[in-house]
């Protein structure tokens, strides 16, 4: 195996084309440098330099070998830089799972953007999941972090609250509900409510069902959709109404009108899931970023106590 030190010596002499100047740059005496170059030539099986008492020039083999030697040393330097960043948690890989109803939120986009700007050497992989499977995927390491609305059912996973997001009513623009400034749950209960499938393990479903029970309002279940976009599409098609996070209003679907709810406690949780005693420095870095972003109040936040 080639000695990296000898490759550095070769590169320096090739740049200077003078053993004396190269020795000064390397903080060596000239004789030891000459011996190291001779030893490298012996290992390679060809001469690197043609030397006279006045000049030093690269041989044809030396010129051909030079870019490979330079490339090896550049890769070694890059490896050292990456190793330092890995040790500091500023490089590596991070798998982030999220539910579709969070992907539209300012919190999500701002946290992703801020993290990417601060840690460009961390490869961030985004995976859309159902709430019910997020906790298990974080627990077994398939995901490093989960953004969910559902508390995990796994002792190996911890949930940190990022606050709550206000819910709004999504109704067909042709519905009489669209003409109201705000809508009550009692008024909504006369219409089929579009939810995620019951087996989807949706945290948003859970929040909505708890809200209806708390206010003693019957829930008339309608068709289901597996993504927030499909739920809104069903609303536009006149198949029912939906309660969705306020961030969903960014989906300006033709035929859908969004209205605030009378009930001030109509909110959905925002949770970040991680493994307990997580040692991944990139996870800790992301947590610091999302905590910072979550600390900035948003108009869509709930304010009830």
UniProtKB/TrEMBL annotation:
<feature type="domain" description="HTH lysR-type">
    <location>
        <begin position="2"/>
        <end position="59"/>
    </location>
</feature>
<dbReference type="InterPro" id="IPR005119">
    <property type="entry name" value="LysR_subst-bd"/>
</dbReference>
<dbReference type="GO" id="GO:0032993">
    <property type="term" value="C:protein-DNA complex"/>
</dbReference>
<dbReference type="Pfam" id="PF03466">
    <property type="entry name" value="LysR_substrate"/>
</dbReference>
<dbReference type="Pfam" id="PF00126">
    <property type="entry name" value="HTH_1"/>
</dbReference>
<dbReference type="GO" id="GO:0003700">
    <property type="term" value="F:DNA-binding transcription factor activity"/>
</dbReference>
<dbReference type="InterPro" id="IPR000847">
    <property type="entry name" value="LysR_HTH_N"/>
</dbReference>
<comment type="similarity">
    <text>Belongs to the LysR transcriptional regulatory family.</text>
</comment>
<keyword id="KW-0805">Transcription regulation</keyword>
<keyword id="KW-0238">DNA-binding</keyword>
<dbReference type="InterPro" id="IPR036390">
    <property type="entry name" value="WH_DNA-bd_sf"/>
</dbReference>
<dbReference type="InterPro" id="IPR036388">
    <property type="entry name" value="WH-like_DNA-bd_sf"/>
</dbReference>
<protein>
    <submittedName>
        <fullName>HTH-type transcriptional regulator BenM</fullName>
    </submittedName>
</protein>
<dbReference type="GO" id="GO:0003677">
    <property type="term" value="F:DNA binding"/>
</dbReference>
<keyword id="KW-0804">Transcription</keyword>
């Amino acid at each position: 195996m080639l000695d990296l030190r000898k490759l550095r010596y070769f590169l320096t002499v090739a740049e200077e084309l003078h053993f004396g100047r190269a020795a000064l740059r390397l903080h060596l005496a000239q004789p030891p440098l000459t011996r190291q170059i001779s030893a490298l030539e012996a290992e390679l099986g060809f001469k690197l330099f043609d030397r006279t008492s006045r000049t030093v020039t690269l041989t044809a083999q030396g010129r051909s070998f030079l870019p490979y030697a330079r490339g090896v040393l550049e890769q070694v330097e890059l490896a050292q830089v990456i190793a330092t960043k890995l040790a500091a948690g500023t490089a590596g890989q991070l798998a982030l799972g999220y539910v579709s109803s969070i992907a539209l939120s300012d919190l999500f986009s701002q946290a992703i953007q801020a993290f990417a700007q601060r840690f460009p050497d961390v490869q961030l992989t985004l995976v859309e999941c159902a709430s019910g499977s997020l906790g298990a995927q974080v627990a077994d390491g398939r995901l490093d972090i989960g953004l969910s609305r559902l508390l995990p059912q796994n002792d190996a996973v911890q949930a940190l609250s990022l606050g709550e997001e206000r819910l709004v009513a999504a109704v067909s623009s042709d519905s009489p509900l669209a003409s109201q400034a705000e809508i009550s749950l009692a008024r909504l209960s006369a219409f089929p409510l579009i939810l995620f499938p019951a087996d989807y393990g949706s945290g948003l479903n859970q929040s909505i069902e708890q809200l209806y029970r708390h206010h003693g309002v019957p829930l008339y279940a309608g068709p289901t959709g597996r993504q927030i976009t499909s739920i809104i599409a069903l609303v536009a098609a006149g198949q029912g109404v939906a309660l969705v996070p306020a961030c969903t209003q960014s989906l300006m679907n033709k035929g859908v009108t969004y209205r605030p709810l009378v009930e001030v406690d109509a909110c959905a949780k925002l949770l970040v899931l991680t493994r307990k005693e997580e040692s991944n420095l990139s996870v800790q870095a992301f947590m610091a970023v999302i905590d910072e972003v979550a600390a900035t109040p948003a108009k869509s936040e709930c304010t009830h106590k």
